[in-house]
Amino acid sequence: MQANDDSGPICGEGGIRAREVLDLVSDKWSLYVVAALGQGPLRFSQARRVVAGISQRMLTVTFRRLVRDGLVARTVTPTVPPQVTYSLTETGHSLRRAVQPLIEWAFTTVDDIDAARAAYDARVDEQG
């Protein structure tokens, strides 16, 4: 396919729809939340502890988006106070299975990337 060919799967209507789906999970927090829920259902406070660095507001926004998109189920148990748990739907589990190799790659290559950045920064600093 040529770079300016808009009839192919990446640039055509199908590509636009696929990009919209990828945009659902390409923000800063969605994959972390999906990975955390891959271990099992979590209450909001548990998820906040597991997903290090996420603010309460961002976790709320992320959960709402993932629930709306059908990746996460929100279950309210009618107790006093109500207990809310979040869990992956089947679609959410399929996403987790799809990105698991990427997550593992990130964990195994983080030191290599840090070393490459340090080497690059040292070269740039030497050049002025």
Automatic annotation (TrEMBL):
PROSITE patterns cross-referenced by the UniProt entry: HTH_HXLR
Alphabetical list of InterPro entries matching this protein: HTH_HxlR, WH-like_DNA-bd_sf, WH_DNA-bd_sf
A single MF term (Gene Ontology): DNA binding
Ranges where the HTH hxlR-type domain occurs: 11-114
Keywords assigned by UniProt, alphabetized: DNA-binding, Transcription, Transcription regulation
UniProt xrefs under PANTHER family: TRANSCRIPTIONAL REGULATOR, MARR FAMILY, TRANSCRIPTIONAL REGULATORY PROTEIN
Protein name: Helix-turn-helix transcriptional regulator
Organism whose genome encodes this protein: Speluncibacter jeojiensis
